[in-house]
Amino acid sequence: MLRVEGVSAAYGAVKALDGIDLNVGPGEIVTLIGTNGAGKTTLLMTICGRPRAVAGTVRLKGEDITALPPHLIAARRVAHAPEGRRIFARMSVRENLQLGGRMAPKDRFAANLDSVLTLFPRLAERIDQRGGTLSGGEQQMLAIGRALMAEPELLLLDEPSLGLAPLLVKQIFAAIARINRERGTAILLVEQNAHQALALAHRGYVLATGRIVMQGPAAELAADEAIRKAYLGG
């Protein structure tokens, strides 16, 4: 599905990614863990086309999309739920979801809306409420739901549990598992909650200062002593 090969990216003179190799197979959940500033968010943004990779290639189902602008990458059924949610606060839940559905066929809107509201019943209860008045957990549901409205084959999730209470974290991760299980959506998950991420994912990568320093099956990473000390609290 997704293959990142030797990708480097920079902000001006500051290199943020240095020769990243990563892949996500069809129907697979892959997690990317690392400390703040490691380059996790930058990698997701580079896959989406901004910033552009300064070296290496990003391939989607074999097609080189490295130089494509973000809207053409999105049109290839790649959806991104960004860190911080970035919903449109003055727009209603319905309007946010309508924007998310612009990349999908118009005749699929009703079915996609029903699917999202079934996955997140709380959004159905607040369908005409402004996004900015939702709780943090509801806003995260809306951010993921907006991404799903595009019928993605590849879903990029950036810190979906950030700032949420434990019960809501559990609900969000259950929804991610359901998306993968029922839709077969490939997911690349950036997450600081390494316990939850490795429990959910099939495989994982560890990113440190812009480089992949470890990779493997999620269960093996979770059992690795160095990973446990650095990211799992010993």
What does this structure look like?
Helices cover 38% and strands 26% of the residues. The longest helix is centred in the last third of the chain and has 18 residues, at 166-183. The mean pLDDT is 93. The chain has a six-stranded mixed sheet, sandwiched between helices. The chain has a four-stranded antiparallel sheet with strand order 2-1-4-5, with helices on one face. Helix 3 (93-100) runs parallel beside helix 6 (136-148). With 234 residues, the chain is α/β, with parallel strands linked by helices. The protein has two domains: 2-77 and 152-231, P-loop containing nucleotide triphosphate hydrolases (Rossmann fold, 3-Layer(aba) Sandwich); 88-151, no CATH class.
Concise overview:
By secondary structure, the chain is an alpha/beta fold. It is built from ten helices and ten strands.
The CATH topology of the largest domain: Rossmann fold
Helix/strand order: EEEHEEHEHHHHEHEHEEHH
Number of structurally distinct domains: 2
CATH H level of the largest domain: which superfamily? Answer: P-loop containing nucleotide triphosphate hydrolases
Secondary structure category: alpha/beta
Q: Number of DSSP helices?
A: 10
- Name of the top-level CATH class of the largest domain: Alpha Beta
Task: Catalogue the unreliable spans.
Answer: none
**CA-atom Rg in angstroms:** 17 Å
User: How would you describe the shape?
Assistant: globular
- Main sheet makeup: 6 strands, mixed
Portion of residues in helices?
25-40%
Instruction: Please give the CATH architecture of the largest domain.
Output: 3-Layer(aba) Sandwich
Number of strands: 10
Spatial gap, N to C terminus:
34 Å
**Sheet with the most strands: spatial strand order:** 6-7-8-3-9-10
Which range does the strand content fall in? Answer: 25-35%
Mean pLDDT: 93
